[in-house]
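PROTEIN DESIGN WORKSHEET
SECTION A - STRUCTURE
LENGTH: 202
C-ALPHA COORDINATES:
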Protein backbone atom coordinates (compact mmCIF):
# COMPACT_ATOMS: atom_id res chain seq x y z
CA UNK A 1 0.00 0.00 0.00
CA UNK A 2 1.56 3.30 -1.05
CA UNK A 3 1.54 6.63 0.79
CA UNK A 4 -1.15 8.25 -1.38
CA UNK A 5 -3.51 5.31 -0.85
CA UNK A 6 -3.14 5.77 2.92
CA UNK A 7 -3.87 9.51 2.62
CA UNK A 8 -6.95 8.81 0.51
CA UNK A 9 -8.22 6.33 3.10
CA UNK A 10 -7.76 8.86 5.92
CA UNK A 11 -9.59 11.55 3.92
CA UNK A 12 -12.49 9.24 3.12
CA UNK A 13 -12.73 8.19 6.78
CA UNK A 14 -12.94 11.80 7.95
CA UNK A 15 -15.63 12.52 5.35
CA UNK A 16 -17.57 9.49 6.54
CA UNK A 17 -17.50 10.82 10.12
CA UNK A 18 -18.85 14.26 9.09
CA UNK A 19 -22.59 14.80 9.45
CA UNK A 20 -25.20 16.21 7.11
CA UNK A 21 -27.45 18.71 8.88
CA UNK A 22 -30.23 21.14 8.10
CA UNK A 23 -29.29 24.83 8.02
CA UNK A 24 -31.75 27.73 8.16
CA UNK A 25 -32.95 30.67 10.26
CA UNK A 26 -36.41 32.18 10.73
CA UNK A 27 -38.52 34.29 13.06
CA UNK A 28 -41.37 31.79 12.61
CA UNK A 29 -41.89 30.07 16.00
CA UNK A 30 -42.71 26.82 14.18
CA UNK A 31 -39.16 26.72 12.83
CA UNK A 32 -37.78 25.97 9.37
CA UNK A 33 -36.38 23.05 7.37
CA UNK A 34 -33.74 24.72 5.22
CA UNK A 35 -30.97 23.23 3.14
CA UNK A 36 -28.89 20.12 3.71
CA UNK A 37 -25.25 21.00 4.41
CA UNK A 38 -22.09 19.00 5.09
CA UNK A 39 -20.76 19.86 8.54
CA UNK A 40 -17.07 20.20 9.39
CA UNK A 41 -15.54 17.25 11.19
CA UNK A 42 -16.45 16.96 14.91
CA UNK A 43 -19.52 19.20 14.55
CA UNK A 44 -23.03 18.12 15.51
CA UNK A 45 -26.46 18.99 14.16
CA UNK A 46 -28.34 21.56 16.22
CA UNK A 47 -31.74 23.18 16.51
CA UNK A 48 -31.49 26.57 18.20
CA UNK A 49 -33.88 28.99 19.87
CA UNK A 50 -32.39 32.42 20.55
CA UNK A 51 -33.72 35.65 21.96
CA UNK A 52 -31.84 38.92 22.15
CA UNK A 53 -30.93 42.14 20.43
CA UNK A 54 -32.33 45.61 20.79
CA UNK A 55 -35.24 45.51 20.31
CA UNK A 56 -35.45 41.88 21.40
CA UNK A 57 -36.02 39.38 18.60
CA UNK A 58 -36.77 35.66 18.70
CA UNK A 59 -35.18 33.28 16.20
CA UNK A 60 -35.47 29.58 15.38
CA UNK A 61 -32.45 28.19 13.57
CA UNK A 62 -30.76 24.98 12.47
CA UNK A 63 -27.03 24.63 11.93
CA UNK A 64 -23.82 22.68 12.45
CA UNK A 65 -22.56 23.32 15.98
CA UNK A 66 -19.47 22.55 17.99
CA UNK A 67 -20.41 20.31 20.95
CA UNK A 68 -19.34 22.97 23.48
CA UNK A 69 -22.00 25.32 22.08
CA UNK A 70 -24.79 22.85 22.84
CA UNK A 71 -26.94 23.69 25.85
CA UNK A 72 -28.27 26.91 27.37
CA UNK A 73 -26.46 30.25 27.37
CA UNK A 74 -27.87 33.39 28.97
CA UNK A 75 -26.56 36.86 29.80
CA UNK A 76 -27.96 40.20 30.95
CA UNK A 77 -25.81 43.32 30.64
CA UNK A 78 -28.38 45.79 31.89
CA UNK A 79 -29.73 46.98 28.57
CA UNK A 80 -29.82 43.66 26.76
CA UNK A 81 -30.92 40.24 27.96
CA UNK A 82 -29.93 37.32 25.70
CA UNK A 83 -30.78 33.63 25.72
CA UNK A 84 -29.83 30.74 23.45
CA UNK A 85 -30.93 27.12 23.79
CA UNK A 86 -29.25 24.61 21.47
CA UNK A 87 -30.48 21.03 21.18
CA UNK A 88 -27.78 18.94 19.50
CA UNK A 89 -27.82 15.46 17.99
CA UNK A 90 -25.28 13.24 16.33
CA UNK A 91 -26.79 11.62 13.25
CA UNK A 92 -27.47 12.79 9.70
CA UNK A 93 -30.32 15.31 9.35
CA UNK A 94 -31.45 14.75 12.93
CA UNK A 95 -32.12 18.45 13.67
CA UNK A 96 -35.65 18.49 12.25
CA UNK A 97 -37.69 19.69 15.24
CA UNK A 98 -37.61 23.30 16.49
CA UNK A 99 -36.67 24.07 20.09
CA UNK A 100 -39.80 24.86 22.13
CA UNK A 101 -39.84 28.46 23.32
CA UNK A 102 -39.16 28.48 27.07
CA UNK A 103 -41.29 30.30 29.60
CA UNK A 104 -40.16 33.75 30.66
CA UNK A 105 -37.36 33.49 33.26
CA UNK A 106 -37.91 34.87 36.74
CA UNK A 107 -35.39 36.64 39.01
CA UNK A 108 -33.25 34.12 40.89
CA UNK A 109 -32.08 36.39 43.72
CA UNK A 110 -28.57 37.14 42.42
CA UNK A 111 -27.77 40.84 41.92
CA UNK A 112 -24.85 42.16 39.88
CA UNK A 113 -23.52 45.48 38.71
CA UNK A 114 -24.64 46.22 35.16
CA UNK A 115 -24.41 48.99 32.60
CA UNK A 116 -27.11 51.31 31.27
CA UNK A 117 -25.57 53.75 28.83
CA UNK A 118 -22.33 54.95 30.41
CA UNK A 119 -23.44 54.14 33.95
CA UNK A 120 -22.10 50.80 35.22
CA UNK A 121 -23.24 51.31 38.80
CA UNK A 122 -26.72 50.00 38.03
CA UNK A 123 -28.21 46.94 39.72
CA UNK A 124 -29.11 44.04 37.44
CA UNK A 125 -31.44 41.35 38.78
CA UNK A 126 -30.23 38.05 37.34
CA UNK A 127 -32.84 35.69 35.90
CA UNK A 128 -33.21 31.99 35.27
CA UNK A 129 -29.84 30.25 34.81
CA UNK A 130 -27.80 33.46 35.14
CA UNK A 131 -25.83 32.35 38.22
CA UNK A 132 -22.64 34.43 37.83
CA UNK A 133 -21.75 38.13 37.78
CA UNK A 134 -19.51 39.00 34.84
CA UNK A 135 -17.23 41.68 33.47
CA UNK A 136 -16.43 41.74 29.76
CA UNK A 137 -13.75 43.97 28.26
CA UNK A 138 -13.13 44.33 24.52
CA UNK A 139 -10.04 46.11 23.20
CA UNK A 140 -10.35 47.55 19.70
CA UNK A 141 -7.16 49.25 18.48
CA UNK A 142 -6.71 52.01 21.09
CA UNK A 143 -10.27 51.90 22.47
CA UNK A 144 -11.22 49.70 25.42
CA UNK A 145 -14.89 49.01 26.16
CA UNK A 146 -16.15 47.34 29.33
CA UNK A 147 -19.57 46.11 30.38
CA UNK A 148 -20.92 44.22 33.37
CA UNK A 149 -23.92 42.09 34.16
CA UNK A 150 -25.21 38.56 34.76
CA UNK A 151 -24.14 35.41 32.93
CA UNK A 152 -24.87 31.70 33.02
CA UNK A 153 -22.21 29.12 33.82
CA UNK A 154 -21.90 28.10 30.16
CA UNK A 155 -21.13 31.68 29.08
CA UNK A 156 -18.36 31.89 31.68
CA UNK A 157 -16.93 28.47 30.80
CA UNK A 158 -16.93 29.27 27.09
CA UNK A 159 -15.08 32.52 27.75
CA UNK A 160 -12.54 30.97 30.11
CA UNK A 161 -11.35 28.45 27.51
CA UNK A 162 -10.43 31.32 25.21
CA UNK A 163 -13.25 31.17 22.67
CA UNK A 164 -13.91 34.92 22.50
CA UNK A 165 -10.75 35.53 20.50
CA UNK A 166 -8.00 38.13 20.67
CA UNK A 167 -8.83 41.37 22.44
CA UNK A 168 -11.80 40.15 24.49
CA UNK A 169 -11.51 39.22 28.17
CA UNK A 170 -14.29 37.96 30.41
CA UNK A 171 -14.19 37.34 34.15
CA UNK A 172 -16.98 35.76 36.19
CA UNK A 173 -17.63 35.46 39.91
CA UNK A 174 -20.35 34.22 42.25
CA UNK A 175 -22.04 36.39 44.86
CA UNK A 176 -24.06 39.60 44.93
CA UNK A 177 -22.25 42.55 43.32
CA UNK A 178 -18.96 40.63 43.15
CA UNK A 179 -18.18 42.16 39.73
CA UNK A 180 -17.60 45.63 41.24
CA UNK A 181 -18.77 49.01 39.99
CA UNK A 182 -16.76 51.01 37.45
CA UNK A 183 -16.58 54.61 36.36
CA UNK A 184 -18.64 55.73 33.40
CA UNK A 185 -15.68 56.73 31.23
CA UNK A 186 -14.66 53.15 30.48
CA UNK A 187 -18.02 51.60 29.69
CA UNK A 188 -20.16 50.97 26.63
CA UNK A 189 -22.71 48.21 27.09
CA UNK A 190 -24.49 48.94 23.82
CA UNK A 191 -21.32 47.87 22.01
CA UNK A 192 -20.08 44.99 24.13
CA UNK A 193 -23.39 43.37 25.08
CA UNK A 194 -24.31 42.26 21.54
CA UNK A 195 -20.72 41.05 21.03
CA UNK A 196 -21.30 38.14 23.40
CA UNK A 197 -24.35 36.99 21.52
CA UNK A 198 -22.63 37.42 18.14
CA UNK A 199 -19.52 35.43 19.09
CA UNK A 200 -21.48 32.58 20.62
CA UNK A 201 -24.19 32.08 18.07
CA UNK A 202 -23.20 33.47 14.69
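SECTION B - SEQUENCE
RESIDUE ASSIGNMENT:
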Amino acid sequence: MNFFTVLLGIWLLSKADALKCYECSTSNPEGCIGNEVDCPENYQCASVFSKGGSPSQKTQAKACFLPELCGEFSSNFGEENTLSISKCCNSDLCNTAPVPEPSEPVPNGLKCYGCVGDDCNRTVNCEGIQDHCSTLTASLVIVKKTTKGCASKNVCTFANIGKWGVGVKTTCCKGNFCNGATTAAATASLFVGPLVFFVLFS
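SECTION C - NOTES
The first strand starts at residue 20 and ends at 26.
Residues 1-16, 183-202 have pLDDT under 50 and may be disordered.
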